[in-house]
Amino acid sequence: MIEILFKKKLNNKVNKKILLLQENSTPNYSELNKIITKEECKALQNNDEIYYQGNHLKILRYKKNATHLDFQDLGGSIVNLTKDIQTASVFAPDKEIANVAFGFELGAYRFDKYKTSKSDKEKTKLKKVYFIGNSNDEQYYEFKILKDAIYMARDLSSEPANVLTPKNFMERIVDLEKLGIHITIIDKKELTSLGFNMLLSVAQGSDNEPYVAIMEWKGNQSQSDYDLALVGKGVCFDSGGISLKDSDGMEEMKRDMSGAGCIVATMKSIALQNINKNIIGAVGLVENMPSGKASKPGDIVKSLSGKTVEIINTDAEGRLVLGDLLWYIQEKYKSKKIIDIATLTGAVFVAFADVYAGVMGNNQNLINKLIKAGVASGEELWQLPLNKKYDKRIDSDIADMRNISSQRGAGAITAACFLQRFIKEKTVWCHIDMAGVDVNKFGSNTCPRGASGFGVSLLNKFIKEYI
Ligand SMILES: [Zn+2]
User: Fold this and answer.
1) Alpha carbon of 447 to ligand 1 centroid (Å)
2) Where are the domains of the chain?
3) Which end of the chain is more exposed for a tag (fewer CB within 10 A), N or C?
């Protein structure tokens, strides 16, 4: 555990002092006396990195028009600069010091709970970092909540499927009740009697039973309606079912619950910030496995909405889970504005790799706001068209619809067309396809290689500033 401390001025001795200064500027002692001595300042005039009487000092440069995301990125870069020392202090402009600390914490994330011995290379020696400037723990509070939520989403996405079963995931959600979130769990028996047949068809091949979890946050007691419903795909392992996936990379399919992980982490962050809005979150937790009980290509199921679906490919299962869930959240909770998020299609990865998530929906205003929140949070979205011509391609000859398109191409769009068939006419709805951005394959300053925790920052921004 690395301890983060905010100080107005530094008296402690540290192993390394890191100063964030604008490019081409020279160190100015009247500004930097919070962290360095006059002599150190003088020595830094000619060199951005010095050792002065046993102190290691380093200047990191930012551009004149640097944004808060640039400062988060610089903060993340400090992780690598400090892994071999025990203490460090960091100076940045007052306005940005919290962003620098936030970026540092995001970059310092590790998922190493299953390592029984850590090699020195992996183990950071760092114990304490002092962030020097006009910020304090109170001002950092919201950043800390968001950081914890992103950590939670990354943890959930990183857990192997033999640990994070639908039941285990459900139990972690129940745990959030202590934060004032009202939790409702729907088990297999009740799902069966309610008629969640599409969702159940995905789960029926697995020995691990499915659950639906509903999380209600009523931050605005004066109003009974929900300001927003968040729906997430929680396929805890997606083997593809009878339409079995290739074994190459199949281990990554433990992350097919990242949409649900994002929603759960977001609900937690909303509660901890005591946000004065009414938000409902719903996740469908299932495993998609082949077995003698598994659903087969060609099977026809009757969805919760009453519409029938011909399952052409059992690997297009996320939409089956979401379709019933979207319908339920509108019927039972009267949700009029819904955002769903899911690792839904390989097609969206083909289009955008890990740079953008795809966004589609029936309301341009909502899409525009989400795109703006994406830019501000650094989790960017790109819109794909929901043209009626695509929708026709999921018509079935013998049922109301098929679960994949009858033609090749536009797989991310036809998946959204499928979801739209479970959206009522007056419901404002957006779908975010986060397949691809759920993982940071190569690692970045603010996200080590592995689960990204995508969507938590985006939805936080959206909920706080755009609804
Ligand atoms: Zn699948």
Assistant:
1) 26
2) 3-135, 144-465
3) N
Amino acid code (one letter) for 442: F
Coil, helix or strand for 284? strand
449 is catalytic: no
pTM above 0.70, yes or no: yes
Fold annotation for 3-135:
Leucine Aminopeptidase, subunit E; domain 1 (3.40.220)
Q: Measure the CA–CA gap between 334 and 222, rounded to whole angstroms.
A: 17
Q: CATH fold of 144-465, please?
A: Aminopeptidase (3.40.630)
C-alpha to C-alpha distance for 166 and 95, rounded to whole angstroms: 43
Q: Where are the beta strands (DSSP E) in 304-393?
A: 308-310, 337-342, 357-361, 381-383
Nearest Cα to Cα of residue 354 among 237, 252, 463: 252
State both tokens at 49. 């990195």
Q: Which of 58, 83, 167, 245 is catalytic?
A: 245
Mean pLDDT, 10 residues at a time, the chain of 467 residues: 92 92 95 93 93 92 98 98 95 95 97 83 84 87 97 98 98 98 98 98 98 98 96 98 97 98 98 98 98 98 98 98 98 97 97 97 98 98 97 98 97 98 98 97 97 98 96
Q: Are 229 and 404 spatial neighbours (Cβ–Cβ below 8 Å)?
A: no
